[in-house]
Amino acid sequence: MDHTEFRVKAKEMVDYIADYLENIRDRRVYPGVQPGYLHKLLPTEAPEKPEKWDDIFKDVDQHIMPGLVHWQSPHMHAYFPALTSYPSIMGDMLSSALNVLCFTWASSPAGTELETIAMNWLGKLLGLPECFLNEKNDSPGGGVIQTTASEATLVSLLAARTRALMELSKLNPELQAAELLGHLICYCSDQAHSSVEKAGLIGLVRMRYIESDEGQSMRGAKLEEAIAADKEKGLVPFWVCATLGTTGSVAFDNLREIGQVCQKHGAWLHVDAAYAGSAFVCPEYRHWLDGVELADSFAFNPSKWLMVNFDCTAMWVKDSTALHRTFNVNPIYLRHENSGKAIDYMVGSQNEDIKKLTLKKINIMNDIDHPKADDNKVDNKFNKNNGVITQIENRNITKVDAVEVSTDVDGNIGKDDDLYDAVGDTKNLHGYNKISHGCGKIIQLEDPNKKELLHWQIPLSRRFRALKLWFVLRNYGVVGIQKHIREGVRLAQKFAALVLADPRFEIPQPSNLGMVAFRLKGDNAFTERLLKRLNARGYIHAVPACFKGIYVIRFTITSQRTTNQDILDDWNEIKIVASEILTDVFGSENGNIAVVKKPRISLKETRELNATFGTSLLLANSPMSPKIVNGTHAAICDYEQVLTSCAQTFAQLKMEPKDSPGANTETIEAKIC
Which keywords appear in this protein's UniProt record, sorted alphabetically (predicted)? Predict the structure, then answer.
């Protein structure tokens, strides 16, 4: 494809995308294909010769589209939202065309700086404390765009692990990192996302699940109880994950209580608000953020509810040096003369003096050996005092650019070390400290007086994700984003009202934000059967959840295109399938639920039962369309000025026949009872 064909086909693609999203409501949301269907339709090998673009795209329509779950459909209610929007799509189009990699400032100055700006905008929009922002040169906090909330959770756990191991190594210099690692333990709710468990597996640490309360919330008292018990066993609590908006029921852990426990025990507090974080753009939902200033890191997914297409996870840390210590590698090819003047999301050096250039860092992967304890030291590895490790080190091993260096407790480098000569005999070149005597174990060191941020993430390369986030924030504005969030909550409340109005269904847990967890009353098997049949029919798509033995269907508002009518249509589909299942099992569409029908009462009977009942004859917009309403519920504001104005208006109110051609009377009197 050359540039001429690209101009034509790219415009056709834009039309295809616009038509797809505009008419997505008409598509079957869940595909009716079986595993392996695509293998039967496509060749087993790549084509030998180039194929025409029209032939390629014909296969998209014929083979790919029938096998997709349409996540942007208003009838998609599974999982959480994975929304996109036109400004986000255009941001990704431009980012894909530019294809810049934003791992250092030098690799893409505008890319790295725009990410800092966009993350500061977003942090303020959520109402995050200033300590999480990076608006000043000396600010230790800041934001970074990760790929997923799962990665943000893992990054925070690894940073906390490094911090804990550094402290433990100072107290127990005779132990290797692998031995210290066995004493670490972290915590989360039993309602936490599966990615939290996966982070613990990757980090090689123990994970304890705290039982949630009746509202599916993790509370401080339960956490304190678990930590105290683990400390008695010689374990060290180092990381806690609090969830704001659990997967099963969008429940919220008590952030303030948990934060106070974490501060007491020196544990890192990470807040996972993957879905619910978007709601904090609306002030009325920020009460769930109470206590966020006690957190060390906070993450949510704009790629869920904020209409920024995947992937885009916003993560803030209170002290970014914790990340730098964990992911610090600094090869020569990533250094540049502007290091320290702006954020590098990958590489740089500390703003420290020479002696602190040697980070006291435990490298699990390299399994750094520590010097053996002196003979006159105590034999036991851990001296416990109220569950706290108290043994202090005399010397420690640190690591500078892959060279192990022996330092004393103050971090001073002995003059007999190779590094001293290297650092002491340097010549400055383009902002670097160049080693004058050639290559050895150390090739090159950054200027230690520069503030250069190190690694913020696990991968090296990173996409220009800030562009699509910036586009969405500007094109929608604060008001537009808030309107979008509030509409999703309103539609969920409407669905909940429909569920509660049907005696066959129940909502076992309070509904929060844009998700409702509901079920058929009775055995879990009824609800499970309902969900399977709904998904098989393909008109709507939902997934289950289970908390405390109760099987529920999660119904999430996932599309900004969802309307009131869509909710009514989807509820009607649910009722139809439920009636079929209950009829099959019980022989009645109501199942074993006794439904009492309300008797119809005529207007005459209403007047006889209620002597104060009154009616008003009102005109609709269309002529000759009288409406009968119950006038007993009319209320009039008693402000004197308003009453005077109303009296004057009623006194002058006359409607001539020419003003209402369908009316046969010259004057219509309104009776208010």
Answer: Catecholamine biosynthesis, Decarboxylase, Lyase, Pyridoxal phosphate
What's the per-residue H, E or C state across 336-397? CCCCCCCCCCCCCCCCCCHHHHCCCCCCCCCCCCCCCCCCCCCCCCCCEECCEECCCCCEEE
Q: Please check whether residue 520 is in contact with residue 527, taking contact to mean a CB–CB distance below 8 angstroms.
A: yes
The per-residue pLDDT for range 130-170, each reduced to its tens digit, is 989 988 767 788 888 988 888 999 999 999 998 998 889 88
Burial (0-12, 13-18, 19+ Cβ within 10 Å), 145: buried
DSSP output for 427-440: EEETTEEEETT--S
Which residue has tokens 């209620």? 610
Question: Tens of pLDDT along 637-651?
Answer: 445 555 566 666 665
d(CA 273, CA 263): 20
Instruction: State yes or no: pLDDT of 54 exceeds 90.
Output: yes
Q: What is the DSSP string of 172-204?
A: -TTS-HHHHHTTEEEEEETTS-HHHHHHHHHHT
Closest CA to 122 of 466, 461, 484, 455: 466
What's the CA gap between 354 and 373, in Å, rounded?
Answer: 27
CA 259 – CA 267 distance, rounded (Å): 9
- Two structure tokens written together for 136: 């000043």
Q: What pTM value is reported for the model?
A: 0.72
Pairing of strands 543-547, 432-435: unpaired
The CA-CA-CA angle for residues 69, 576, 542, to 5°, reads 30
The 10 Å CB-count burial string (b at 16+, else e) for 203-218 is bebebbebebeeebbb
Task: Kindly write down the DSSP assignment for every residue of 466-519, as one continuous string.
Answer: HHHHHHHHHHHHHHHHHHHHHHHHHHHHHHHHHHHTSTTEE--S--BTTEEEEE
Number of other residues whose CB lies within 10 A of the CB of residue 617: 13
Q: Are 484 and 88 in contact (CB under 8 A)?
A: no
Q: What angle do CA 557, 558, 561 make, to 5 degrees?
A: 95
Could you check whether the bond before residue 344 is cis, i.e. omega within 30 degrees of 0? Answer: no
Q: Cβ(96)–Cβ(339) under 8 Å?
A: no
Instruction: Taking the CA atoms of 174, 177, 179 and 182 in sequence, report the sign of the dihedral they define.
Output: positive
Half-sphere exposure (Cβ direction) of 87: Cα atoms closer than 13 Å: 17
**pLDDT tens digits for 173-183?**
888 888 888 89
Backbone phi, then psi, for 404, in 5-degree steps? -80, 135
Q: What angle do CA 560, 562, 568 make, to 5 degrees?
A: 160
